[in-house]
TrEMBL record:
GO terms for biological process: histidyl-tRNA aminoacylation. Coiled coil: none annotated. The lineage of its organism: Bacteria, Pseudomonadati, Pseudomonadota, Alphaproteobacteria, Rhodobacterales. The keyword Endoplasmic reticulum does not apply. Keywords: Aminoacyl-tRNA synthetase, ATP-binding, Cytoplasm, Ligase, Nucleotide-binding, Protein biosynthesis. CDD domains: HisRS-like_core, HisRS_anticodon. HAMAP family: His_tRNA_synth. Homodimer. The keyword Aminoacyl-tRNA synthetase applies. It catalyses: tRNA(His) + L-histidine + ATP = L-histidyl-tRNA(His) + AMP + diphosphate + H(+). GO terms for molecular function: ATP binding; histidine-tRNA ligase activity. This is Histidine--tRNA ligase. L-histidine binds at D88, M89, T90, R118, Q132, D136, R302, Y306, Y307.
Amino acid sequence: MPKPKKQPRPKAQTPKGFRDYFGAEVARRQSMLSEIARVYRLYGFDALETSAVETVEALGKFLPDVDRPNEGVFAWEEDGDWLALRYDMTAPLARVAAQYRNDLPSPYRRYAMGPVWRNEKPGPGRFRQFYQCDADTVGSASMAADAEICAMLADTLEAVGIARGDYVVRVNNRKVLNGVLEVAGLAGDDNADRRGIVLRAIDKLDRLGEDGVRALLGEGRKDASGDFTRGAGLDDAAAETVLGFTAARRGSGRETLDRLTELVGDSAVGAEGVAELAEIAALLGAQGYGPDRIVIDPGVVRGLGYYTGPVYEAELTFEIAGEDGRPRSFGSVAGGGRYDDLVKRFTGQEVPATGVSIGVDRLLAALTAQGRFTDADDGPVVVTVMDRDRMADYQAMAAELRNSDIRAEVYLGNPRNFGNQLKYADKRGAPIAIIQGEDEAARGVVQIKDLKLGARLAAELTHEEWRDQPAQVECPRADMVAEIRKRLG
């Protein structure tokens, strides 16, 4: 009788396009989100948590990656219904606004934070699960709502540590682009798909450059991997009209608006979009948000198809080293706009709405690149174990530190090798280790080993200098908390 085939062990690896987050990363994200929530609440927005799973019908089909299964969402069938993981925070908000419309205030301001999932082709820095942080106003058609979102976005970036001058919030209006597309011959329902391709092409301008976008506006483009993306099929003249729109920004907001007026020609919807941009600019100017923070920029399109009016994007302008080692601007970390038709899918009635979404992982990467989290990397104080029978004493030390709001833990591995305990403390990023053996306990003292200072002194000082500035000191057990607090600053 043949032996049963041995079941292979599962591979310990994350699925393609996903990643794991460890202690310091999670703590940094929580700290940043807490600061963002503080600003949102200052503007009167309330928190909302929705389910990670929605019906496919409720989500709609708005993802740009149309060549993926289920229009780019992770979906499955259950009891005759199709369910999917949310791909953003806006579609669930539209469902909530419709479902609870009789209970919610109007306008309704909410913010939401959490992971979203997209069934898109992963690539460098492009994951299938990532965090978003949204703020939206549902029920107001006023351009003051859009201006407020832009102002709040600028305030949020500065609150988390992005200095003024290192970012710009760029504002455009989808109606202006619709007017330009009318001029280019893409009006009407028959051209809806082609308009969508144009939107997604322009949205990739900073990544693909003018030649890449021109290819997508025409017959299509093949990327470095050999994958072919179908284009909008515009002729050369129409493509140049669209590219001229993306380059319409001038030296001042007024000059840019004048140029947009020229481009939309006789288009009524285009003229309406220009007027809305002028109103937003005036409202922001009255609040003190000048072009050093927020600008009118026709290059902002936003790829998602549900935007109906103003669109905006926050770009970080400071430079980082690219994969090729050359300096480049960090790029976009947030975007949003007005989507007056999204709630209408549920109610049949137009409900105006506008909002913004912050790419949490990208903003976190930007703050890390600027060194904003140096102090947040510290691990806990580690209480070493010199005597197994005195574990209760060591636990009492840790408890005393925690009661004083000092992060602390007792070493819980095999205490026989003291060197391994210090290696563990280093791996944890511990700033300090506490040592108390029989002799110290009998004398009522503890040894405090400043691990960070020790590492720095070992690298900087001579042996004689080291003797004069020891990184390990002895102090009375009763003074342990005060001494550690002083060393932690």
